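note to self: dont lose this again. the chain is below, predicted strucutre after it. 205 aa total, dont forget to put it in the shared folder this time
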Amino acid sequence: MSENKSPQARPAQLDDRSPWVLDTRELGRHAGLSKAVQRAIPVESALGVPDVITIDAGSSLELDLILESVVEGVLVSGTASAVATGHCSRCLDPITEDVEVDLTELFAYPGSATEETTDEDEIPRLVDDRIDLEPMVRDAVVLALPLAPLCTEDCQGLCIECGVKWADLEPGHGHEKIDPRWAALVDRFGDETADDQADGPGKQA
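---
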C-alpha cells in the first residue's frame, strides 16, 4: 500500500453507452445490498495470441455476475465465458475451446480508506457510481487462454520427417537413413533374400 499519497486526478467519466459500464446507484452504498447482472458483450478486437488461440472479434463474452455493496466499495464476483479458436500446438489442427474464468474484484468508493491507501492500478475505483468491467474481464480471460493449446491431451503431433500426423500413420512408421556407401550391399542382399523366399523351403542345394 502507498503512504502519504498525493492527491490523484479525477478519473474520466465513464460512457453509459458502453456494455462494459455498470451503474451501481441502486445499491446506494448500503453494505449487504446486491444485484445480479447477466450480459453478453460483443468482442470488438480479438483477445489472445494471434495464430495460436484467440477469442475472435465478432464473438461475445457472456458475463454472469453478482454486484455486492460492501463497506469499502462494490464487490464484483461471478464468471465470464467465451469460445476460443486456434490451432493445436503439436499437430496444428484447428481447435475450438470453451473458456470460463472466475472473477472477483473490489471497486473502491471515492473517499474510502481503500481508495486513499491504494493506487488505482492495485484496486479500481467507482466513477460517479459506475464501474468499468473491461480491464478486469479482458485481463482474466487472456490469462486463462492456454499458451500451448492441444486438440487432445495425448496428441502425438507430427512426424518430423514427413510432417504427417502420427495419428494418421501406420504402426511402425519410420524414416531409416542408410549410408550411401552401404546402399549397394543392402540392395544386393535384399534381392538375394527375395530370391530365397521365392524358391521356398523345399529348394535343394
